[in-house]
Amino acid sequence: MIRLLLICLIGPFSYTGAAWAATELEDILNIPKAAFIVENVCEYTLYTKKASRGFVKVRTVSMGNAGFVEPESEPHLALTAGHVLECDQELGDRFFGDSLQKTDITSFEVKHFTTFAIYNGVRYPVNILEKGPNGLGPQDIAIISVILPKGLPHYHIPILKDKNSYGMKSAVSIYGFMPSIDEWRLKNGKIESLSDALIKVETHVYKGLSGSILLFWDGNRHYAIGVTVGVYITPSEGYVDMAVATRLTDKVIAEIEKKAASFNK
Fold first, then answer.
1. pLDDT tens digits, residue range 47-92?
2. Which long-range contacts (CB under 8 A, 24 or more apart) does 255-261 make?
3. H-helix or E-strand containing 25?
């Protein structure tokens, strides 16, 4: 009861899984202080003869997750999934209604408008520093910086460089906001597949965790070893049996350190 009460008092945190050892519980309570929601805004220009100006502008908002990582620096570096920062290249049903039909559109253009971080319920501007598949290789991952007020404290998740510390069947965790159920959740699982680029984790989570940091407990601290990028869905149940994460490769880690060093000059 004491542990559950402590979790509720710390912040937006819901624990599901086996009991944690005291030191592990103390460390996991730091993770919500590093996690935040990414809000990505895209602007669409829809060309149609039905509009007096010949076009209509529509802005859409999509959500994902992200987490602050070490090294600690200004501005505040974080990781998310690359696709969280992308705009849909197709027009879905949400664009149309009684006043505008899909057949009314002759063509359209789309551009990224802006991105925000929602940390502790407050919206802050975001700079996109690097996004695959450019400087980070083919990985679905992005390095961003959040423009926070000076002195605003938050936790940085350390990055694990020793890839021999974990392997098949290693226990891992994912913490993030699930829009489908409007809750923050910590989900535990085991590594079921491991390659140079990807980590697949057997766990039951809902959709919407893209960008969440994949965590590994080494006995002393929880380390970031990947970024959640996808799921395998069980249609009849509504949850997923497998989460897929982009592995933090040496190239990605080197780029994070490079970005941090450039801001500290």
1. 998 888 899 999 999 999 999 998 776 668 999 999 999 999 988 8
2. 255/130, 255/135, 255/136, 255/143, 256/69, 256/71, 256/77, 256/79, 256/143, 256/159, 257/71, 259/77, 259/129, 259/130, 259/143, 259/145, 260/71, 260/73, 260/77
3. helix 22-28
Q: Rounded to 5 degrees, what are φ and ψ at 32? A: -60, -25
The SS3 call for residue 84 is: helix
CB 184 within 8 A of CB 174: no
Q: Could you tell me which of 35, 42, 86 has the C-alpha nearest to residue 65? A: 35
Q: How confident is the model at residue 169 (pLDDT cuts 50, 70, 90)?
A: very high
In the block, which residue shows the tokens 């542990």?
A: 3
Q: How many residues does the chain have?
A: 265
Residues 244 and 230 sit within 8 Å (Cβ to Cβ): yes
Q: Confidence band (pLDDT; 50, 70, 90) for 224?
A: very high
**Domains observed in the chain:** 2-33+157-251 (2.40.10.10), 35-155 (2.40.10)
Of residues 13 and 174, more confidently modeled: 174
Distance of alpha carbon 205 from alpha carbon 243, whole angstroms:
8
Please identify which residue in the block is written with the tokens 């999934």.
81
Which among 250, 195, 205 is positioned nearest to 228, based on CA atoms?
205
Residue 112 has which token pair? 């990224």
Tell which residue, 110, 94, 113, 111, has the closest CA to residue 102: 94
